[in-house]
């Protein structure tokens, strides 16, 4: 960190709860000491006349303008500064922060400046960084219950990193030959790069003889070196431990993936590497000291650095693919959730996550205890803090996981069920007696069917070229799925499930399917017509529909599973789809207090179309919301009598 910087003395009235300076028209500061770093949009003043005003104001003595000018001197006049982690990770941004030291002024005197208890090592391969990681592992071993219990599970194959003393070379061995149950797993991005060392049916004998160090990509080499540094002998990497050209082996090993990650001693996550050539380790520049504020004789040093995209910051759910490509991948989702302990190597620092705590080198993430793997899931994906743990039933928890999972990317469309199979297998332990149905559960099937896809907001989009699941499953589409139960109170299903089944590709009930059939007893409203919303614009939120469903005088929000172009109707340049059918789904009331005295009802309906006699496909979900009981009852009476419906 730089030590030479400007010093500015704070007004003598600082901290007295009085206005310490008059309001500044150049930077917008009110003069209130508690708002020095608050209410400053983006910490950025446009260059030109705006910057000139700030510079003049700084000369006249405005404290905040002085800070801005010093920031410009260090990082340039176009820099965007922010002191909170609530901006999009895709916007280049710097942050201002303070690191306490002996004799410093209390941080409470400068509200809004982030305080970090420590700084990252700046080099994730350094001894300081690795000792920090070791300390996290030791703490977990001593104080947590995360370490997998001794079991008979062994991966089918592992990499022996200690087979050739004095040599960097490794070898692939049968898991039954492991002398210790401890092994480390690697979570990484394949990208477009296929390493020469990958194992195939033909190359397996060669890999079981010796794998030359020079044939390994950088990420694998770094992970092997780290495994040795941790004094562990065995390592599991899918590229080497699964036959990449053998479908039977791949299906068998993907089924065992649940056990591989769940039973691992530690998972190493190459979070910032786009493929095997990226490596684990990274060096980042040290923060710059921008300015020293003096409160009397006590210093308060302010530093600047590029805003870190903290994995678990919890203030935005977007993930910067450029910085953290691993966390955008669908296969990695179950690796993160199933692994009891994960050490992430990012561009800036190391991050630790286990079932009971989460921490990073700069200590922005305060170590916290969680109570279950589900809480770890919620915290890991930035939805809420463990301290704010809100009980959820199994249905809502599954919906949460599906929503987060389907926000991620898969290279192969056909992987949408296999990449979630490990989590489904784990969830099944708490859903005894239920049947897994292509991403849905028999015990909550009526609720699980009430999903919608964001793909419906993109006109012209079509279903994946490869058939993956029946149309009643969210897995039939690749984009994100959202369930309405986030917004409902108590819901009453208006249909009955008579039968539901899937045809499996293999004997793995959690794996891919080749067909599916859903038999419902429900009331239908035929001859519904879908049209663009009269404003016909992309919604600002998921509740501003782009399409509507017209049923006589009643208009419902309509979210199609696919763009309406696929349905094949275009009238005067405006897509119009007729002969659609509403299937009465769930009647619910709002759960918030606003509607306690005058409850509003919401009716959600599956939208289907007939493909052959009494056989249908799902094409979307429609919703009539915010009506009183009389209006809802009148509309519901338009539906026909209960009838048998088969959806495929």
TrEMBL record:
<protein>
    <submittedName>
        <fullName>Heterokaryon incompatibility protein-domain-containing protein</fullName>
    </submittedName>
</protein>
<dbReference type="InterPro" id="IPR010730">
    <property type="entry name" value="HET"/>
</dbReference>
<feature type="region of interest" description="Disordered">
    <location>
        <begin position="373"/>
        <end position="393"/>
    </location>
</feature>
<feature type="domain" description="Heterokaryon incompatibility">
    <location>
        <begin position="183"/>
        <end position="335"/>
    </location>
</feature>
<dbReference type="Pfam" id="PF06985">
    <property type="entry name" value="HET"/>
</dbReference>
<feature type="compositionally biased region" description="Basic and acidic residues">
    <location>
        <begin position="374"/>
        <end position="387"/>
    </location>
</feature>
